[in-house]
């Protein structure tokens, strides 16, 4: 896909973003709603959050949900995708931009959390819409049409790395052990699901996390260096972290929903299932004759 088609603002998006920037003086990041490239009525992202430990990114809208104005009142969110967002120049320079340790997975969440900790606000503008091609998420390269399963391992490793970057010093060791425990538990689920591809991906996640450890010190230093010390900033960030209900919903929709979609796509069609039966019946009849 042409790079210019990765994302494209819809008419009025920039005006809505700049209007919010003038109205919200504390807003350091003003994000747009991301919609599907081929169907702007379908939502892709309207902000994200994460769990208390930071080990799971949680979306604030179900992907492909129809935009009927039900989210028009939403404003403050923990994070937005920086694709198509406005970022104040002084904030970008003061927070030293994106952390390259994330390799493009979760760097928007990391930057937005540092914005909150430094005393700024992160706002989403539901009236500003941006078409998003989701090339990276689906591993699309040229004519190759990938899937979310292609990037699953990298995304899970980035979520664990995010948890390690934001954890208190005493929680680092438990969080280093947690990916191994999680991988073992998920491996059992993948065996039950008979999903060899995600089984291999889950088992590789702890290895991916360990490979990122040399960059952990610099990432933790960046979080500490760019964070403010105000109680208001930390309280605002904590209030926007995912609730237990949001996490359960996200697991049901993202993981089990993706699995059911894959299983439905992989299952033989009704015609394919009936063909063997039809051939068998025909063979019996011809034998009888």
Automatic annotation (TrEMBL):
Key words of the record: Glycosyltransferase, Transferase
SUPFAM superfamilies: Nucleotide-diphospho-sugar transferases
Pathway as given in its UniProt record: Cell wall biogenesis; cell wall polysaccharide biosynthesis
Domain of life per record: Bacteria
Keyword Transmembrane part of the UniProt annotation: no
UniProt similarity note: Belongs to the glycosyltransferase 2 family.
Name of the protein this chain belongs to: Glycosyltransferase 2-like domain-containing protein
